[in-house]
């Protein structure tokens, strides 16, 4: 079987290996069907992810089919499955708080252990969720990024009637939008790319702000009668957007942060104390897969056609290059097996 490995910075190669055998700990052999390419996969390839270890098979947005089972299982051969890319120790404080996504010993599939850019892999069934076999793979490959949106909106505790700002209409901002709109609320989304904003509007955003030609703070003040948004979620993740998030959020509001940047932002205490802001991190997801799959199977994301390009596994190196060079043409590119 074929796999693609990042050996070192900007060096990705094909390898030919034996198909692995399922065993007691990794009891399911999965045949890979589609893998979504995420910004973090590109960061690993370009040497910009300090958490990843090399050499690494990347890919954590993965759907496949159960090919072989070791021993007893609730799954059946032929079942379509999506991979929950985290495994945790079960013993640390976070795990005991039922928040395994921030486990001290967290292992992320495709980051700390080999991921989905290979024709077959073994995994424990705890990390597999069945998806109705009628759902096209082009749709089910979006489940993982949708769980990131589910987590961010869950952390934000969105209430009916809230006004929400999402900064950034990239794939993550859009996955947050799709979840925010499951509650009756007003969603404002900002970006500097008009094509992305137009797509966000088509996907349910109530108001779009192009920050190329308008000032975010004054626009938000206008829209909210100077109150600010009740929730701001940062899906751009720069020090500047983090600062803006705290500046445009109303008293008693929530500011959700998704970034991994190490550079500090300049945030003063005044708006946080004066407005009793709650600032929350949102990392990957906890227990969001089942809910997202249910919404998907019930048609809640039927018009969410995020996938814009499909590449064959043999063309994966070109695919990464294409995404880097054509940011406005690519919403989500996926690899087809
Ligand atoms: N915490 C998590 O679990 C998690 C998971 C996945 C991704 N992320 C992070 O989420 C962020 C977004 O991911 P993505 O894949 O959507 O990225 P992306 O780069 O595809 O999209 C970012 C969007 O922000 C826009 N943008 C840039 N500067 C802006 C600004 N100042 N104001 C408004 N919009 C601006 C860009 O035009 C683009 O459309 C990344 O930083 C990524 O690291 C976090
Ligand atoms: Zn991803
Ligand atoms: Zn733990």
Give the SSE order as H and E letters: EEEHEEEHEEEHHEHEHEHEHEHEHEHE
Q: Quaternary arrangement of the chains shown?
A: single chain
CATH topology of the largest domain: Quinone Oxidoreductase, Chain A, domain 1
Tell me the radius of gyration: 20 Å
CATH class of the largest domain: Alpha Beta
Based on CA inertia axes, which overall geometry fits?
globular
| pLDDT averaged over residues | 97
Strand content: 25-35%
**Which residues sit in consecutive blocks of at least 5 with pLDDT less than 50?**
none
Ions, cofactors and other bound molecules = nicotinamide-adenine-dinucleotide, zinc ion
**Number of domains as seen in the coordinates:** 2
Give the CATH H-level superfamily of the largest domain. Medium-chain alcohol dehydrogenases, catalytic domain
Strand segment count:
17
End-to-end separation in angstroms reads 11 Å
Question: What does the main sheet amount to?
Answer: 7 strands, mixed
Task: Please explain how this structure is put together.
- It is a single chain.
- With 337 residues, this protein is α/β, with parallel strands linked by helices.
- It has eleven helices and 17 strands.
- The N and C termini lie close together (11 Å).
- The chain binds nicotinamide-adenine-dinucleotide and zinc ion (2 copies).
């Amino acid at each position: 079987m074929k796999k693609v490995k990042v050996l070192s910075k900007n060096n990705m190669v094909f390898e030919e290996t034996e198909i692995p055998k399922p065993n007691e700990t990794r009891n399911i052999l999965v045949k890979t069907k589609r893998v979504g390419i995420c910004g973090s996969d590109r960061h690993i390839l370009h040497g910009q992810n300090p958490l990843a270890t090399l050499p690494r098979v990347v890919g954590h947005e993965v759907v496949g089919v159960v090919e072989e089972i070791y021993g007893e299982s609730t799954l059946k051969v032929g079942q379509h499955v999506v991979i929950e890319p985290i495994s945790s120790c079960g013993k640390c404080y976070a795990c005991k708080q039922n928040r395994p996504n921030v486990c001290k010993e967290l292992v992320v599939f495709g980051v700390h252990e080999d991921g989905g850019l290979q024709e077959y892999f073994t995994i424990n069934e705890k990390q597999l969720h069945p998806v109705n076999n009628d759902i096209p793979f082009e749709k089910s490959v979006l489940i993982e990024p949708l769980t990131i949106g589910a987590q961010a909106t869950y952390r934000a505790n969105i209430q009916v009637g809230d006004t929400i700002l999402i900064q950034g209409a990239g794939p993550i901002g859009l996955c947050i939008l799709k979840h925010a709109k499951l509650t009756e609320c007003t969603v404002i989304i900002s970006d500097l790319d008009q094509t992305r904003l137009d797509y966000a509007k088509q996907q349910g955003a109530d108001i779009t702000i192009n920050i190329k030609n308008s000032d975010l703070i004054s626009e938000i003040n206008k829209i909210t009668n100077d109150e600010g948004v009740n929730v701001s979620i940062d899906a751009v993740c720069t020090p500047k957007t983090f600062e803006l998030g705290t500046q445009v959020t109303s008293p008693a509001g929530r500011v959700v942060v998704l970034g991994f940047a190490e550079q500090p932002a300049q945030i003063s205490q005044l708006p946080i104390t004066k407005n009793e802001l709650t600032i929350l991190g949102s990392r990957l997801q906890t227990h969001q897969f089942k809910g997202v799959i249910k919404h998907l199977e019930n048609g809640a994301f039927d018009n969410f056609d995020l996938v814009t390009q499909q590449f064959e596994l043999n063309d994966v190196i070109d695919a990464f290059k294409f995404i880097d060079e054509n940011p406005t043409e690519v919403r989500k590119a996926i690899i087809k097996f």
